[in-house]
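Standup notes, structure subgroup. Blocker cleared on the adenosine-5'-diphosphate input:
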Amino acid sequence: MASNDKSVKQGGVVFEGVSKRYGPVTAVDTVSFTIEPATLVTLLGPSGCGKTTTLRMVAGLEAASGGRILIAGQDVTKLSAAERDVSMVFQSYALFPHMTVMDNVCYGPQSMKKSRAEAEALAHDKLKMLGLAGLEKRLPSELSGGQQQRVAVARSLVLEPAVLLFDEPLSNLDAKLRRRVRQEIRELQQSLQLTVVYVTHDQSEALAVSDKIIVMEAGRIAQQGAPHELYRKPASRFLADFIGDANLVDGEVADGGRTFVTADVRLAIEGAQPGPATLALRPHRLRLVTAGAGRLPGTCRRVDYLGSHLEVLVDTPWGTLLLFTNDDEPPPAAGGAVGVDFDPSAAIVLPR
Ligand SMILES: Nc1ncnc2c1ncn2[C@@H]1O[C@H](COP(=O)(O)OP(=O)(O)O)[C@@H](O)[C@H]1O
Ligand SMILES: [Mg+2]
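Run returned:
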């Protein structure tokens, strides 16, 4: 019946003022967001900020203490996990160790009263799609970490859920494999037009795979938007620091919002709110120039060679700044006098 292009139902997810309290602890605090159908949205934030709790409320594995949850337009707030059209890929994969790959993938459809033949047809489809054809008879222990992860994805996909949930799916994989598997998940989501909610604490992973990122901080949403919006226009010091690398310089916005002042260095800026402010400078937007030139004088403290680029620490009147440069010039010597320059458009002014 189900061919793989028709088999995926599309459903968005809406949270309206959703909270979750555990006794005195508010794990998720009046959170509202919309996840459009056929998009991949990441919940990103430091450990303990409420990502897993939010995901489990989408799945119906935790009941909301307040607010409303809609999936594919239907109010599911009071529905159990079994009554919701979602499926979760767990961090630990949660494969049955004593069952073959085929049996693992058939388990869900069979427990939903499909015949073994129907379940196998569905499973075969998904295993092939995930590059697992030929491994049907293996046990999980006979697979690599990446293959086990794909079996876990196949096991969720075979249920043809409206929404697929991932909780830190790459945390058990090594660095090289992490990049490949995240690309695979993204390609699968795009080719099947799946709606995916993806939890991670790794900002580079979130930037790489997401249509939209929802950044959480202490149970609340700190900012949400497309990856490039969050990177270019972080809303706060926390966000500038959490997404990408940033040099943060505290100072004051003066001249009715047209100058940023700190340590006697004045920088013309576009209209900002006068008062205490923090300037965020991305390391790759800073340039090393000869001593005496540029906006800031500096002394080179340390140079690290990373193959594709250099990471340079420079002591300046604004504190120690981190620079990335891929200049082919011989690197400056530690202790040498340099100048630091940047385009004023590279300076992000944040309220403090
Ligand atoms: N079952 C629970 N009982 C009490 N507190 C919990 C429970 N689950 C999570 N919490 C608390 O809620 C907060 C958010 O947890 P969690 O959603 O797991 O964060 P994250 O996934 O972002 O690391 C943490 O302070 C955590 O200790
Ligand atoms: Mg978690």
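Discussed briefly. Residues 13-232 form a domain with the Rossmann fold fold (CATH 3.40.50.300).
Next: hand off to the docking folks.
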